[in-house]
Design brief:
Helix 4 crosses helix 5 and helix 14 crosses helix 15. This protein has 18 helices and 20 strands. The chain has a six-stranded mixed β-sheet, with helices on both faces. A six-stranded mixed β-sheet has the order 16-17-18-13-19-20, sandwiched between helices. It has about 525 residues and is of the alpha/beta class. About 35% of the residues lie in helices and about 25% in strands. The protein has two domains: about 240 residues, Rossmann fold, CATH 3.40.50; about 260 residues, Rossmann fold, CATH 3.40.50. One of its GO terms (molecular function) is ATP binding.
Amino acid sequence: MNGEAIFEARDIVKTFPGVKALGGVGLSLMPGSIHALLGENGAGKSTLIKVVTGVHRPTSGELRLDGRSVDFGNPRDAIAAGIGVVHQERNLIPRFSVAENIHFESFGANRFKPIDYRRLNESAAEWLRMLDLDIDPAMSVTELSTARMQLVEIAKALSQKSRVLLLDEPTASLTSGETDTLFEILRRLRDNGTSLVFVSHKLEEVEALCDRVTVLRDGQNACESQSAEGLTRKDYVRLMIGRAESGSGWRKRDTRAAPQVLGLDDVASGLGHSGVGLSVRAGEIVGLYGLVGAGRTELARVILGQEPVTQGTVRIDGEAVRVADVSEAIHRYRLGYVSEDRKGEGLILQHSVLANAGVPIWRKLAGRFGFLSDATVRAAVLPYLTRLEVKTPSLDQTTANLSGGNQQKISVAKWLAAGVRLLIVDEPTVGIDIKTKAYLHDLLRELADGGTAILLISSDMPEIVALADRIVVMDAFRTKGSIENDGDYTTMSEKIMTRIQDRTPSGTSSGIGETARCA
């Protein structure tokens, strides 16, 4: 590794109205290095990335590239200087093809010269092959899964041949196999001299990949650009949150005598589900595990009435029902849903914290005459926002201005305020820091202890094993049986993967649901 830094951020301060996001932060990137940038949500990581990539200008401080001071007026200045970024939130243009998105910065650079789409697609195909991504470059990005959209974002950044490449939670939507492929590519880029910045809340990934680390806490350096050699998970956690990691682990609970809140019997849907069976009892956490594309999020949409049930029975409190729409699911059956896509579906980003937290209970609070005041909503939701420690200057703050972790807390708080009987939680801790993740885990346990039925959808197997009483395995839009959780990660992961790899058709005739419990 070369001893000269390729890029430096020196004493960076960034203030917004009423908020000091960064208070004298430093970062030094070496060529041929993978540098972890760690911190809780709200610690300043995203703000620092935006300063480095020209989205924000620093209030004070200096950026240096190859030993010279630089000033990026916009992201294109940073790209031109060889600094690329893959943001946590997708930044693709829906109406454009995969190839057009990958080469967007050079797309149509000469407006008097016709675009050679054959060459554009061929060039894009080369970058897609680097990621082992077998898709047609001419297809619209709207046809891709969330995971594949993320890989296209990475291909786009690679195509810019950046000398410095920042990746903000690049594996959040990827399977373990896709993550392994990405890591091979990142190591190859590192070996060719690229300086990489890797932001992740998955510390096992940081330990496997990164050789240097910078940790932010409350907008300041907890450590600045030091070697990762010898650092353990406990060290990272202590640097990020200022103390040792906490949070309770799995514990055995018996809910067999509790009433069933949700039951699905041999359900098929217009989305392609067939033979789906599961049940969730009051006070029970049922994990729904499957690989990307298994049909879990789509099943949540069916339960909530967004998509039609074409066969089988949905039962709420033991009674067969047909949920007409989301409004009926919320107000009549008291079902709640914390979406995987908190920005696209879970929240209205341009509305206030108060408005977002109060949406599910507006009708309830308005009363017979339809009158609703902010004070009424505030009194109803503030206890839950306080309980979840949502960090916001005020409840009037625009939700888009908050960190991803605080946005996720609001997504949960609104359903706590609504007092739902069944809460479907879809990938609740994607992009969430360790402290908030442990807090949300404890909160889900607390809700279950209080009688709330919880259907937990997660691709994070350690999370499923840490929380669930039972685990229902799903593959190819079918359930593959229910497994009693014993809290042992090794044995549970083996049982789960055995179910997924078993391609024997399954359905209610195979004993899915309550009758399919196994040790």
